[in-house]
Design goal:
By secondary structure, the chain is of the alpha/beta class. It has a single domain, classed as TIM Barrel, CATH 3.20.20.70. It is about 45% helix and about 10% strand. The chain contains 16 helices and 12 strands. The longest helix has about 35 residues. The chain is globular, with a radius of gyration of 20 Å. It starts with a helix and ends with a strand. It binds flavin mononucleotide (FMN). Flavin mononucleotide binds next to helix 3.
């Protein structure tokens, strides 16, 4: 870790560093949300509304942060979530994050929209790796990705259900951040001012692509691949597709983007193993509730028959503990690890995971809790 990074103490600080390092269009692509960004803000605000009620005299001299999830023990209840184009933030960004996750003893989920292929990512060293997919208009392509993930030894398949149309991200439109890029003069000038990022990425630009969308032997032209990707998303997907996926995928199956308790009930009926309560980090339906608000009803509806995870607005160890107190088994992060990646590559992601770990540990110690499974609703001030 560099001396500069050692001074960074929080996710908020690492975000500020990422803002300084990245061209505005790239920073905004990660940081922004849909339309008025109400859901984006709400994710963090609703965590802030919850307060913790500690019991110091319970005594918690040693704390065990590990958690059992889908038959694997993770060192902490925090998973590196799927984000597209991580390779735009740091050369070979996805693989750098995989190494950091493996080092931290936790799982990582690769995005459908990764720069590297899922096969290459599988070689990067993360044992607990999950693969995120969509239901495409061409159901054969969903099957193809699923079979490739199985062949490459992925343990879990994450079906994202809230991206069937692309959210209206106005920052990206203003910045001309699109695939292929339609950059304005201002955006290009902004990029030219970010020397460190430009220098680091100088050999990479021709390699930035959607690695999983190129068929074997095909020229990986990013614009053509983006067009394929967009046209393949299917707003007409339904539970029948989930049932079909359940038939073809033998490993752990999760649905990501669940907010309605009725969908949690259906997921149980379909034999899904886990759901991720998520509004896509406020990037899709602006006006959706915060994930943490939606969580309790989903935990109740699922009745312990599947694992409920959560993402959206998790910025502190205390947020993870609050989600666990409301019944989540673990949380995922999106933007925080991208910010870490932009600042320090593998070491930056490692530092973000380490910060979360030490914050969770401190919250547990201050609250009188020594094991993750002892975290429950009694920890919340009502
Ligand atoms: C830049 C970016 C790209 C994302 N790409 C994907 C993706 O390809 N697939 C997916 O399921 N979710 C994607 N997400 C959503 C994240 O998985 C996650 O739901 C969200 O970021 C969680 O909120 P947080 O950023 O507040 O932690 C993306 C998020 C960001 C910020």
């Amino acid at each position: 870790m560099t001396r500069e990074m050692a001074r960074i103490g929080s996710v908020a600080e690492i975000r500020a560093r990422a803002r300084a390092v990245l061209p505005r269009a790239v920073f905004d692509f990660a940081d922004g949300g849909a339309e008025d960004e109400r859901t984006l803000r709400r994710n963090e605000e609703r965590f802030a509304d919850l307060a913790l009620l500690p019991r110091p005299l319970n005594g918690a001299a040693a704390r065990d942060l590990s958690v059992e999830l889908f038959g694997r023990r993770l060192a902490l209840p925090l998973i590196v979530g799927p984000v597209g184009l991580a390779g735009l933030f740091w050369p070979d960004g996805e693989c750098a994050a995989a190494r950091a996750a493996a080092q931290a003893g936790t799982a990582i989920c690769l995005s459908h929209g990764s720069v590297c292929t899922l096969e290459r990512f599988a070689e990067a060293g993360a044992a607990a790796r999950w693969m995120q997919v969509f239901i495409y208009r061409d159901r054969g392509f969903t099957r193809e990705l699923t079979e490739r993930a199985a062949a490459a030894g992925y343990e879990a398949l994450v079906l994202t259900i809230d991206n069937q149309l692309l959210g209206n991200r106005e920052r990206d439109r203003r910045n001309g951040f699109a695939i292929p890029p339609r950059l304005t003069a201002g955006t290009l000038a902004g990029m030219a001012r970010k020397g460190r990022w430009l220098w680091r990425m100088r050999g990479e630009f021709s390699r930035i692509t959607f690695g999983n969308y190129a068929r074997p032997g095909e020229q990986a032209n990013v614009a053509a691949l983006a067009a394929r990707m967009g046209s393949l998303l299917d707003p007409g997907m339904s539970w029948r597709d989930v049932e079909e996926l359940r038939r073809i995928w033998k490993g752990t199956l999760l649905l990501k983007g669940v907010l309605h308790p009725a969908e949690a009930l259906e997921a149980v009926a379909c034999g899904v193993d886990g759901i991720i309560v998520s509004n896509h980090g406020g990037r899709q339906l602006d006006g959706a509730p915060a994930s943490i608000e939606a969580l309790p009803a989903i935990v109740t509806a699922s009745g312990g028959k599947l694992a409920v995870l959560l993402d959206g607005g998790v910025r502190r160890g205390a947020d993870v503990v609050k989600a666990l107190a409301l019944g989540a088994r673990a949380c995922l992060i999106g933007r925080p690890w991208l910010w870490g990646l932009a600042v320090g590559g593998e070491a930056g992601v490692a530092q973000v995971l380490e910060m979360f770990g030490s914050e969770i540990d401190r919250v547990m110690g201050l609250s009188g809790i020594s094991r993750i499974d002892a975290i429950n609703a009694e920890l919340l001030f009502r």
